[in-house]
């Protein structure tokens, strides 16, 4: 079966041009003029872009005494409704659990995905088994390893563990990721705030100031450089972290930064809301910041010092958020955003002139496909690429509302925001997965996307080599010790 997308304006990370796209089965066969096929989609007046890739989601995540409410079914449905055709979720081994066993569990959970997915493996503990399992994980198609520098007592790893894992990543051609917040300082601030009677959701933000993120980002960068490996920093929310990334890149280090659509558009004033539920629903880590930090993130996307916009989609219901009434440290951390990432970024970025359309495609799809080594199968409109496409209506408008969302939760952090620019049709490997508000992809239609190691970025910098392979100095005389 062939399908032609006719008369649209194709927008990629590099170019904007008129052309028809011929799809044969699951992949793009040709791009040209006056193409025909068994079926036709009229895209006149629309933009045709690579489907969004969200490299940061947590479906059914076991966390803070509960599980995030969107699973791979509702979560990937939300993605498709918002023009996102691939998500990358985090596999989280329990303490002492082998990585391959955990990976099998995540494959089980993802069996009901409606769109394509991939995994990052989290290093949640360190030992011989983890060391031995890491190459097996890479062989199983997962080339990235996540490290939590926060969540002391649960997910957090220490510097020695992180350094060991980063060195292992360097050997394997894998990419380490970090959640960069100083978990010790956060834990200390949390206790101080609680002791002073600050138990509301606003204290969540006070306990995680930009300093804890900037410090951890810089530390992770220096450890990565010492290990000789590139680094990807998830959810960069503030200038302190962005500054460390800029500095590293300017020195030639391969460090990548990922702001979230939430941090770009929502600010810390949300935590001052008089309604407890309103504030608690916005509790995530890192927390929302002020306008100056938002400006820093936008500037980074435009100038290239930040490369990817993600969501960290980790949705909890209002009822789950209320586990933290009387103690903000027990509010499950996380917000949704998968369905809204593209429309909100288009509205607040492209329509305001902060991003070009080509930059929009780069930061929502193409850049991460390259970083994660799935380009050009994903993130591209080229012959041979998977036909993961979004047909984008730049004139369509809606007011974001939980009442009409695909996500399973009972609210939306973007509630009431008016967006202009929405998907009309989302195609997943050549099939119409979502069209005009109707979800067509079935449970289980999504497939696991293997990402081989040896990404184009396989070694980092600079001065580390001498230190990693130290040369012993021969001396003519050594004084007697005391
Ligand atoms: N931050 C969140 O807000 N939720 C999930 C994990 C994380 O790091
Ligand atoms: Zn569980
Ligand atoms: Zn995180
Ligand atoms: Zn996350």
From TrEMBL:
The protein's matches in Gene3D superfamilies, at most eight in alphabetical order, are given as: Metal-dependent hydrolases, Urease, subunit C, domain 1
What SUPFAM superfamilies has UniProt attached to this entry?
Composite domain of metallo-dependent hydrolases, Metallo-dependent hydrolases
**Cofactor(s) of this protein:** Zn(2+)
Q: Where is the Amidohydrolase-related domain?
A: 47-426
Top-level taxon of the source organism: Bacteria
Q: What EC number(s) does the entry state? A: 3.5.2.2
* Main enzyme class: hydrolase
Pfam families linked to this entry = Amidohydro_1 (PF01979)
Query: Would I find Metal-binding among this entry's keywords?
Result: yes
Molecular function in Gene Ontology: dihydropyrimidinase activity
Tagged with keyword Metal-binding: yes
**Which keywords does this chain's UniProt record carry?**
Hydrolase, Metal-binding
Q: Which family does it belong to?
A: Belongs to the metallo-dependent hydrolases superfamily. Hydantoinase/dihydropyrimidinase family.
PANTHER family reported for this sequence? COLLAPSIN RESPONSE MEDIATOR PROTEIN, HYDRANTOINASE/DIHYDROPYRIMIDINASE FAMILY MEMBER
Q: Name it.
A: Dihydropyrimidinase
Annotated organism of origin: Aureimonas populi
Provide the organism lineage as a comma list.
Bacteria, Pseudomonadati, Pseudomonadota, Alphaproteobacteria, Hyphomicrobiales
């Amino acid at each position: 079966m062939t399908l032609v997308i006719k008369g649209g304006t194709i927008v990629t990370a590099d170019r904007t041009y008129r052309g028809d796209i011929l799809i044969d089965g699951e992949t793009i066969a040709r791009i040209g003029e006056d193409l025909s096929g068994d079926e036709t989609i009229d895209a006149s007046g629309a933009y045709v872009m690579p489907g969004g890739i969200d490299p940061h989601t947590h479906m059914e995540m076991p966390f803070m005494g509960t599980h995030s409410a969107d699973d791979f079914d509702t979560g990937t449905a939300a993605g498709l409704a918002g023009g996102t055709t691939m998500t990358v979720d985090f596999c989280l081994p329990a303490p002492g659990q082998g990585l391959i066993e955990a990976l099998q569990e995540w494959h089980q959970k993802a069996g009901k995905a409606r769109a394509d997915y991939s995994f990052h493996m989290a290093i949640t503990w360190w030992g011989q088994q983890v060391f031995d399992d890491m190459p097996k994980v890479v062989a199983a198609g997962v080339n990235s390893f996540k490290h939590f520098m926060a969540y002391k007592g649960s997910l957090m790893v220490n510097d020695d563990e992180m350094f060991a894992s980063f060195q292992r990543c360097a050997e394997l051609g894998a990419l380490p990721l970090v959640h960069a917040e100083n978990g010790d300082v956060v834990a200390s601030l949390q206790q101080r705030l609680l002791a002073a009677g600050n138990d509301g959701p606003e204290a969540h933000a006070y306990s995680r100031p930009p300093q804890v993120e900037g410090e951890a980002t810089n530390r992770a960068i220096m450890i990565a450089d010492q290990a000789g490996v590139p680094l990807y920093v998830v959810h960069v929310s503030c200038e302190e972290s962005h500054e460390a990334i800029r500095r590293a890149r300017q020195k030639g280090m391969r460090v990548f930064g990922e702001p979230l659509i939430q941090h770009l558009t929502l600010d810390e004033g949300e935590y001052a809301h008089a309604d407890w539920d309103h504030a608690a629903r916005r509790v995530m880590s890192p927390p929302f910041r002020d306008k100056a930090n938002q400006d820093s993130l936008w500037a980074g996307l435009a100038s290239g010092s930040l490369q990817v916009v993600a969501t960290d989609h980790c949705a909890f219901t209002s009822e789950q958020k209320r586990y933290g009434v009387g103690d903000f440290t027990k509010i499950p951390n996380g917000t949704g955003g998968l369905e809204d990432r593209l429309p909100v970024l288009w509205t607040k970025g492209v329509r305001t002139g902060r991003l070009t359309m080509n930059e929009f495609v780069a930061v929502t799809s193409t850049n991460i496909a390259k970083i994660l080594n799935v380009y050009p199968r994903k993130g591209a409109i080229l012959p041979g690429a998977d036909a993961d496409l979004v047909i984008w209506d730049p004139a369509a408008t809606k007011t974001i509302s939980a009442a009409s969302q695909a996500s399973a939760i009972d609210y939306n952090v973007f509630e009431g925001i008016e967006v202009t620019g929405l998907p009309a049709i989302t195609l997943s490997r050549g099939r119409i997965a979502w069209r005009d508000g109707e979800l067509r992809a079935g449970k289980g239609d999504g497939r696991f996307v293997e990402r081989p190691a040896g990404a184009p970025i396989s070694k980092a910098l600079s001065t580390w080599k001498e230190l990693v392979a130290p040369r012993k100095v021969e001396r003519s005389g050594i004084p007697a010790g005391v």
